[in-house]
UniProtKB/TrEMBL annotation:
Pfam families: ABC_tran (PF00005)
InterPro entries reported in the protein's UniProt record: AAA+_ATPase (IPR003593), ABC_transporter-like_ATP-bd (IPR003439), ABC_transporter-like_CS (IPR017871), P-loop_NTPase (IPR027417)
UniProt keyword annotations, A-Z: ATP-binding, Nucleotide-binding
Domain ABC transporter: 9-223
Protein known as: ABC transporter ATP-binding protein
PROSITE patterns in alphabetical order: ABC_TRANSPORTER_1 (PS00211), ABC_TRANSPORTER_2 (PS50893)
Single annotated GO MF: ATP binding
Amino acid sequence: MTPGSQSLLDVSGLSRVLDTRTLWQDVRFGVRAGESVALTGPSGSGKSLLLRAMSALDPLESGEVRLLGRTPGEWGVPGFRARVMLVPQRPVLYGGTVLEGLRAPFGLKVHAGRAFREEEATSLLAALSRDVSFLTLGTDSLSGGEAQVFALLRALLLSPSVLLLDEVTSALDPDAARAAETLLLGWVAAGPDRALVWVSHSPEQRARVAGRELNLRAWQAHA
Ligand SMILES: Nc1ncnc2c1ncn2[C@@H]1O[C@H](COP(=O)(O)OP(=O)(O)OP(=O)(O)O)[C@@H](O)[C@H]1O
C-alpha cells in the first residue's frame, strides 16, 4: 500500500467531556488517501467514542472533522456518514435474511444511484471463505463472528471512502480474521480516496494492518 500525499480525513480540535471527566482534548490528525492507521489507547479511553465523532454519529462538542476538506454539514450529515462509515464491533441487525439486510441500505436516499449487485456480495463472501448459502441465513440467528462478516460485507458493498473499524474481527477465528484483514487492505489499495482506521486490542493485528498508530494518550487531559 502506498499512501498518497492527499489528506483525506482531517480531525482537528476534537474534545469529549463525560460529566466531569475529559476523555480526550484537542485531538488532531490527518489520514491520507491509501493509509491504514490504528487508533490505540487503554480500555475506556474513548476510542469508540472518537470513531463515532469522526463519522458524525455524535454531535461534536468542539473541533471539526473534514473529508476532502468538507465538513459533515457541507456534505450533508447522512452523506458524510455514508462516506466516513463506522463498522461497530456489534452491528445493529434488523431481521430478515443476510441478503435482505445487505440490499436494504440501497433503498435509502443517501445511497440513491448505487445498485446492489449480488455477484459483488458473493465475491466478497468468497474472499472471506463463505459460500453463497450465507446470504440465506437469518440475521437474527447469526453468531457474533457471522454478524461481523455481515457488517463488513454491508460496509464494503456501500463503497465508503473511509472505513472506521471498531474491533471488527474480535469474534472471528484467526483464519477468518486474517481473511478479513486481507480483504480490507486489498480494498483500500484498490481505489483512490480510501482509507482505514482500525481500533484493535491485538498488537499483532495492528502490526499486520496499520502503517502507523495514533495513541489516544497523546490527547488525554492532564490534571
Ligand atoms: N453514550 C455514552 N454516554 C456516556 N458515556 C459513554 C457513552 N459511551 C461510552 N461511554 C463511556 O465513555 C468511556 C469511553 O468509552 P469507549 O467505548 O469509547 O472506550 P474505548 O476506548 O473504546 O474502550 P474499549 O477499549 O474498552 O472498547 C467509557 O468510560 C464509557 O463508559
